[in-house]
Design goal:
With 289 residues, the chain is an alpha+beta fold. It has helices at residues 18-26, 42-46, 49-56, 84-92, 105-108, 243-267, 269-283; strands spanning 8-9, 11-13, 32-34, 60-63, 80-83, 100-104, 125-135, 140-144, 151-156, 161-166, 205-209, 214-217, 222-227, 231-238. It contains 7 helices and 14 strands. Helix 6 (243-267) crosses helix 7. The model has no long low-confidence stretch (mean pLDDT 95). Bound molecules: 2-oxoglutaric acid (AKG).
Length: 289
């Protein structure tokens, strides 16, 4: 009896030429671990929990808990503001129930950008979005696609993170909730009885990255993240090379997400239940959309 998906390992490469990266990974949307992507960044030596506490400890930061993906008042919103130093203490006390995510250091702590060397592996890296993620060992970020349909280069600094990734064309077999970039299945411990179409997933990957390594997450690729250590990381975004994909990202942000938020605020659980039912209909091939 199947109790896990068949997940492939992810390639790990050192220095890689633009041509090889583009042909093997970037264009075909295949994840890869880049061991040398961040090797010259001053951030690798400089950033640690104490450094953030001493330098930016008084900043107020938004934090998120499991209610982020549950219908109700906190859906898709931050649940609590903390002083940065207090939140880092929470992480260091191994409380994995909340996280800081999509913390844009370009806006919040712009001096930190000087510690990151803008990569030239491919064109299209954003100058505006340098997102950081902080959480304790045991934290889990549920399965999703990045809403803006950008490529992501995710570097972890001080510990291990495990990722499960699934190609975008498996969205229906993952029971994607319509009007969202989210699936509510547990991809790590899949329930094939409740979600039988998971058995049809042809391909996926599993990888653990260590401090200093960078995972390339191609645009549209599903991913869930498991914090094996209390850690922080930085995700650089790179625009998709196809304009149609960028438009798709804008649509997701400006239209789809707004519809979902509005329907959640008006109908809450009923809207969630409709999305869950619709995800099943689509997975079983009984509907359009
Ligand atoms: O590390 C996390 O918690 C989430 C990371 C993620 O989803 C991303 O970089 O796109």
């Amino acid at each position: 009896m199947k109790d896990k998906l068949n997940l492939l390992p992810v390639d790990r490469v050192g220095d890689i030429s633009t041509e090889e990266f583009t042909n093997k990974y970037f264009v075909p949307h295949v994840p890869v671990v880049l061991r040398d992507f961040a090797k010259d960044w001053p951030a690798l030596k400089k950033w640690n929990f104490d450094y953030f506490k001493n330098t930016y400890g008084n900043n107020l930061v938004k934090t998120y808990d499991s209610r982020f993906i549950v219908p109700g008042d906190i859906y898709m919103s931050a649940s609590k503001l903390y002083k940065f130093t207090d939140f880092l203490d929470i992480i260091l006390s191994h409380d994995a129930t909340r996280k800081m995510f999509l913390y844009n250091i370009k806006q919040e702590c712009p001096d930190l950008i000087k510690d990151v060397i803008k990569p030239d592996l491919v064109k299209g890296f954003s100058d505006n979005f340098y997102f950081m993620f902080f959480a304790a060992k045991g934290h889990e970020t549920h399965l999703h696609i990045d809403i803006d349909m950008s490529h992501v280069f995710h570097t972890t600094f001080n510990g291990k993170k495990r990722f499960i990734l699934v190609p975008e064309n498996e969205s229906r077999n993952l029971y994607r909730h319509p009007f969202t970039v989210r699936s509510y299945i547990d991809i790590d411990k899949p329930d094939f009885n409740k979600y039988p179409k998971l058995k049809d997933i042809k391909k996926g990957w599993e990888v653990t990255i260590d401090a200093g390594e960078t995972l390339f997450i191609p645009a549209g690729v599903w991913h869930s993240v498991y914090y094996e250590d209390s850690t922080f990381s930085l995700a650089l975004r790179c625009h998709h090379q196809d304009i149609s994909r960028r438009v798709h990202g804008l649509y997701n942000l400006l239209v789809m997400q707004m519809v979902d938020r509005l329907a959640n605020s008006l109908c809450g659980t009923k809207w969630f239940d409709w999305k869950e039912k619709r995800a099943r209909v689509l997975a079983e091939g009984r509907g359009g959309l």
